[in-house]
């Protein structure tokens, strides 16, 4: 987490969407996005475990898993392989981008909730903040790829507008669980998406 | 039977019609029925909110009414609550009332109805209840939305120890639902097929982030969903403890309390409890920002009395404490200032300080604490603004710490903080004489007295001791007393006194003055008394000494001893009536001998040695074994002795010795006992009980036997260290006899040899005198005198006394012809007998070569000097002649090498041929005359022997070859025969 190389990598990956003055090649964009996704993948399970550890039973129970818990505001990462494989690059990137857009907003919500529930847990709050920052970085990278491929950018939706603010504490704990879980799933999927692209557009 | 049924039905119908009639009458009389009853729910507080109006109320009139409310759950018949609500009702007023449900409202349908009655004095006639309103049904379940499982109540805030009912609604009755509280399954009561309620009694506080309660719906092992709630359990708010207020300046009241447990909960469910200060006389209120203290500004000077209420409050509870006080009774003074000391001298000082003035005419009570010398004194004093206290009975030259605190004297509330300062009293003269003792060394003509004194204790020194004055006064002769001043750290001095009585006074001095004097008198004969030394046994704690009481006037006793290993004299003063004491000090070491001397001090201050004691605080085993010598070793005994062993310098009193003896014989000798050594081996042991008996005769031994012995001393603590045994072997019985014979014999032989050596000249002359030299005889001079050249010494040949036989040695001959510088023939000789045929190296005027005969009596060394054995041969000499000479046949005689050495004594160059008579002894000392007094022989060849001829004169004539064959040498053996 505190690896200086990772921060450097993150910064460079954040740069392309911000500065159009220095266009980089498609393969390079894909490679950078892929590297970031791979790096994110290493830390997703740690984020989930840290999150669960702070929520009490049943979340903190060993081997806790509730796949039936889903969020309507967050698209599920799981998909049939054939469906996924037959998607074209644009659709695949578009889905991932939509998901990470929703994830950045949800991660912010979860962080806010946790700072209220667990104010004395700086580790969890820091990990949630870092995850959100990385999701934003990956979004930027994918935008660069889509621009390079000449694909239309999906419209930014305020997915959280659909979330009710009157959720109970338990529901918010569940929401945090689903968000951190889906963040991992979507990161795994992004690695696969980008690996396909990388193979297709070699450097 | 049928008649009875008809009768009963008729009765009930009549009764029913009667009741209906009565109701109608009442309604007509009191038409104040609650109407428009509406029930709403508040799911946060799990409460039903009722609102209704009352019809037919008189306009602008308030009436007191009572409403009875019924609440049923699930079905109307299941009434769970009935209660009355009294209120005044105005015309057209909408009435509100709430009811909190224990069971979450989402889990069951509730029904509410009410009736009312007039309870107003303006309607004195008897009142009747109105009719019940119709049941109002409240159901929240329909608004739950989609989902298979719901758990209620959500995020409920309760106090620790309270009872909570939770419930779940399961949409699918096929699902099996299990609920858990912090991982532990809980069991509830099924209200209907979809709803189950759980009564949690006395919920515990687990953490401030709340307690998770969740339910899991499953079919078989397949989880269908999970749903839960967080129950926020708050700690019970405690009443603030130790609430009090005080003022330091009559401007601010400082109130403090102990807040107890913080009841804050996570997720902003409940903040920390708040504290509010309320003063009832002024009616003012202040919300405190700190959890344990609050400042209250005093605004009115006139207010003397305060009634404070401290209110602690959280979402669930409110607690308060109250105090009522007079402001002047709660004065907490600021600590005094300007603490000073005036007129400080050796034993007293004046302490001054100031108190912060509160109000006019205030009297303060002040407390002074004086710390010094490990003690503490306390004084109380009443002061106005300036405090002063006279501190007396102080110790001189001592640092003190004095501190003061004050309080309101009229209404004591609390002491102020301390204010303190250090001060040191001045010095005073030492109050006690130093403890002095002496040691005396008597020498011829004088005594060397060493005075020792102990430094004064701080209590008696009264300051820093700078020096000691020693005044020596002769008591026998009137003379001036001698004063010595010794700088302070010293604790002894040495005096050399003649054989008179002296009085010595010692005083300790500091900057103020001198101490009383300590007096000691040295008598003429201080320690001449011979006193027996007594042995004592010490213990770990020390030595217990006792002595006989001394007749006469004794002012005390002194016991002295030396500390080891520092060798410092120590002493102890004992009172005159005491005849025993215990000397105990940590300095005593085990294994060290301490000598104690007990003196009696007479009234004249003269010390008289009474007794001597010696002992060990703990005796140890000897540290070393004696070096044992074996004496008088005979075939049957030997003596062991260890005279050098010192019994005094041992770590214990030597009580004797153990002699261990090992021998091959199993039996021990009569005086020995069997003993087993530490290594398990057996040996014989003999015990000597007298430490001064340092020898042992071991007898009854066998000749030619080996014995091993080991001698070790012993003390009360044990034997000396283990060491190796020394081996002794007894000789056989005859060897001594042999020695007795052999030694005199050897002595005799030696004596003879010495005598022989001393008388060697005499023996020589007696046994083998020198052969007379013909040349030295007087006859020769007589011949010269007559100058008859033909006269010569009588030739042996002329006499022909004997035939000369040439003996050819079978071992071989070595011949060298040096004229050609080449060895022609070489024959090894077993004996170094040589005959050389040598050519001359010069041109000789004389004829032919000459032959060198080597005499047996002469030394070999001569041949090496280059002339002996060289036959002077003319270069013109015919080879045949050389050949003749070198032929083996011409080798006449081999010579013993040893006998050639004497030739070396003939000077080189003087002669080329040296022939010395065989009769002339080289030791005769006549050889020097040989070259100077040459005798010319007629023929070299003719000269047979007895003549030494110079080379140039002794040249043979070449023609007389035949004479060469006659050159002979006698065999040495023959020669001496």
UniProtKB/TrEMBL annotation, chain A:
Instruction: Identify one Gene Ontology CC term for this UniProt entry.
Output: extracellular space
Picking any one GO biological process from the record gives: cell surface receptor signaling pathway
Q: Which InterPro entries match?
A: 4_helix_cytokine-like_core (IPR009079), PRF/CT (IPR010681)
Sorted alphabetically, the keyword list is: Cytokine, Developmental protein, Glycoprotein, Secreted, Signal
Kindly list the GO molecular function terms attached to this UniProt entry. ciliary neurotrophic factor receptor binding; cytokine activity; leukemia inhibitory factor receptor binding
Q: Establish whether keyword Signal is in the entry.
A: yes
What name goes with this protein?
Cardiotrophin-2
TrEMBL record, chain B:
**What GO molecular functions are on record for this protein?**
growth factor binding; oncostatin-M receptor activity
> What's any one GO cellular component for it?
oncostatin-M receptor complex
Q: Note the topology in the membrane.
A: Single-pass type I membrane protein
| Compartments where found | Membrane
Transmembrane domains' residue ranges: 737-758
Q: How does it assemble?
A: Heterodimer composed of OSMR and IL6ST (type II OSM receptor). Heterodimer with IL31RA to form the IL31 receptor.
The name this protein goes by in its record: Oncostatin-M-specific receptor subunit beta
Name its species. Rhinopithecus bieti (Black snub-nosed monkey)
Q: Its gene? A: OSMR
């Amino acid at each position: 987490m505190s690896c200086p190389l990772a921060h450097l990598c993150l910064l460079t990956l954040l740069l392309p969407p911000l500065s159009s003055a220095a266009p980089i090649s498609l393969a390079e964009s894909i490679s950078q996005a892929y590297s970031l996704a791979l790096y994110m993948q290493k830390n997703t399970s740690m984020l989930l475990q840290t999150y669960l550890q702070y929520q009490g039973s049943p979340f903190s129970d060993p081997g806790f898993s509730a796949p039936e818990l889903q969020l309507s505001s967050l698209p599920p990462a799981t998909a049939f392989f054939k469906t996924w494989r037959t998607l074209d690059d644009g659709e695949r990137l578009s889905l991932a981008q939509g998901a990470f857009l929703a994830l950045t907003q949800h991660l912010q919500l979860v962080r806010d909730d946790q700072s209220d529930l667990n104010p004395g847990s700086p580790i969890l709050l820091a990990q949630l903040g870092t995850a959100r920052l990385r999701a934003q970085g990956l979004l930027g990278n994918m935008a660069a790829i889509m621009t390079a491929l000449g694909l239309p950018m999906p419209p930014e939706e305020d997915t959280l507008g659909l979330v009710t603010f009157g959720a109970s504490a338990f529901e918010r704990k569940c929401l945090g669980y689903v968000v951190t879980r889906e963040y991992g799933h979507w990161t795994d999927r992004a690695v696969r998406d980008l690996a396909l692209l990388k193979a297709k557009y070699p450097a | 039977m049928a008649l009875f049924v008809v009768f009963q039905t008729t009765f009930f119908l009549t009764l029913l019609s009667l009741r209906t009639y009565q109701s109608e009458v009442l309604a007509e009389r009191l038409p104040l029925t609650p109407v428009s009853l509406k029930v709403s729910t508040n799911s946060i507080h799990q409460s039903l909110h009722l609102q209704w109006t009352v019809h037919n109320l008189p306009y602008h009139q308030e009436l007191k009414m009572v409403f009875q409310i019924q609440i049923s759950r699930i079905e109307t018949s299941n009434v769970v609550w009935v209660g009355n609500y009294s209120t005044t009702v105005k015309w057209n007023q909408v009435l509100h009332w709430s009811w909190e449900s224990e069971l979450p409202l989402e889990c069951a349908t509730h029904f509410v109805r009410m009736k009312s009655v007039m309870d107003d004095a303006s309607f004195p006639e008897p009142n009747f209840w109105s009719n019940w309103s119709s049941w109002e049904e409240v159901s929240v379940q329909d608004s739950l939305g989609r989902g298979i499982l719901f758990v209620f109540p959500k995020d409920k805030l309760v106090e620790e120890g309270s009872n909570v009912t939770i419930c779940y609604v399961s949409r699918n009755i096929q699902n099996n639902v299990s609920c858990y509280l912090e991982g532990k399954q809980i069991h509830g009561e099924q209200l209907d097929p979809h709803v189950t309620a759980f009564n949690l009694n006395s919920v515990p506080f687990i953490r401030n982030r709340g307690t998770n309660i969740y339910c899991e719906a499953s079919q078989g092992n397949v989880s269908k969903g999970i749903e839960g709630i967080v129950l926020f359990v708050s700690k019970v708010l405690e009443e603030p403890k130790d609430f009090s207020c005080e003022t330091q300046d009559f401007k601010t009241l400082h109130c403090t309390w102990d807040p107890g447990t913080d009841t804050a909960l996570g997720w902003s469910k409940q903040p920390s409890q708040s504290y509010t200060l309320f003063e009832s006389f002024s009616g003012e209120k202040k919300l405190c920002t700190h959890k344990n203290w609050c400042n209250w500004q005093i605004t009115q000077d006139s207010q003397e009395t305060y009634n404070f209420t401290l209110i602690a409050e959280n979402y669930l509870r409110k607690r308060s404490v109250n105090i009522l006080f007079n402001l002047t009774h709660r004065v907490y003074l600021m600590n005094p200032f300007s603490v000073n000391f005036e007129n400080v001298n050796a034993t007293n000082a004046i302490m001054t300080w100031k108190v912060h003035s509160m109000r006019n005419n205030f009297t303060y009570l002040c407390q002074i604490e004086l710390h010094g010398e490990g003690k503490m004194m306390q004084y109380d004093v009443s002061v106005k603004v300036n405090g002063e206290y006279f501190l007396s009975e102080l110790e001189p030259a001592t640092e003190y710490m004095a501190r003061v605190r004050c309080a309101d004297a009229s209404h004591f509330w609390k002491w102020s903080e301390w204010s303190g300062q250090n001060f040191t009293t001045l010095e005073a003269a030492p109050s006690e004489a130093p403890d002095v003792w002496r040691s005396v060394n008597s020498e011829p003509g004088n005594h060397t007295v060493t005075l020792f004194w102990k430094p004064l204790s701080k209590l008696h020194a009264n300051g820093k001791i700078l020096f000691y004055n020693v005044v020596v006064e002769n008591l026998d002769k009137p003379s001036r007393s001698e004063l010595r001043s010794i700088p302070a750290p010293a604790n002894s001095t040495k005096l050399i006194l003649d054989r008179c009585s002296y009085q010595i006074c010692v005083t300790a001095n500091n900057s103020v003055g001198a101490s009383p004097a300590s007096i000691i008198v040295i008598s003429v004969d201080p320690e001449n008394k011979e006193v027996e030394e007594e042995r004592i046994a010490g213990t770990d704690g020390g030595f217990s000494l006792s002595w006989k009481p001394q007749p006469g006037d004794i002012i005390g006793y002194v016991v002295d001893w030396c500390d080891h290993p520092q060798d410092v004299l120590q002493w102890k003063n004992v009172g005159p009536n005491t005849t025993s004491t215990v000397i105990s000090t940590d300095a005593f070491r085990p294994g060290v001998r301490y000598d104690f001397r007990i003196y009696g001090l007479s009234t004249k201050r003269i010390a008289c040695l009474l007794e001597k004691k010696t002992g060990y605080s703990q005796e140890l085993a000897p540290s070393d074994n004696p070096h044992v010598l074996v004496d008088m070793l005979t075939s049957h005994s030997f003596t062991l002795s260890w005279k050098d062993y010192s019994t005094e310098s041992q770590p214990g009193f030597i009580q004797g010795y153990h002699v261990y003896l090992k021998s091959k014989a199993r039996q021990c000798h009569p005086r020995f006992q069997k003993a087993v050594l530490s290594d398990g081996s057996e040996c014989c042991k003999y015990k000597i009980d007298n430490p001064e008996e340092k020898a042992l005769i071991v007898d009854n031994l066998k000749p030619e036997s080996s014995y091993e012995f080991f001698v070790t001393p012993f003390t009360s603590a044990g034997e000396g260290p283990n060491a190796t045994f020394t081996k002794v072997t007894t000789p056989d019985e005859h060897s001594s006899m042999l020695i007795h014979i052999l030694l005199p014999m050897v002595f005799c032989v030696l004596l003879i040899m010495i005598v022989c050596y001393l008388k060697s000249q005499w023996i020589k002359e007696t046994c083998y005198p020198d052969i007379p030299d013909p040349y030295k005889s007087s006859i020769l001079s007589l011949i010269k005198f007559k100058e008859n050249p033909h006269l010569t010494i009588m030739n042996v040949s002329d006499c022909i006394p004997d035939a000369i036989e040439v003996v050819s040695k079978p071992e071989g001959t070595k011949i060298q012809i040096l004229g050609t510088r080449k060895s022609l023939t070489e024959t090894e000789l077993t004996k170094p007998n040589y005959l050389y045929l040598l050519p001359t190296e010069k041109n000789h005027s004389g004829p032919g070569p000459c032959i060198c005969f080597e005499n047996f009596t002469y030394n070999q060394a001569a041949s090496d000097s280059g002339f002996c054995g060289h036959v002077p041969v003319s270069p013109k000499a015919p080879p045949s002649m050389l050949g003749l000479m070198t032929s083996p046949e011409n080798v006449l005689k081999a010579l013993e090498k040893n006998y050639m050495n004497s030739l070396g004594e003939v000077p080189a160059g003087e002669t080329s041929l040296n022939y010395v008579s065989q009769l002339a002894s080289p030791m005769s000392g006549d050889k020097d005359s040989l070259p100077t007094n040459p005798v010319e022989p007629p023929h070299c060849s003719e000269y047979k022997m007895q003549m030494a001829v110079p080379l140039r004169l002794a040249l043979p004539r070449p023609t007389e070859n035949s004479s060469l064959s006659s050159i002979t040498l006698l065999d040495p053996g023959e020669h001496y025969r």
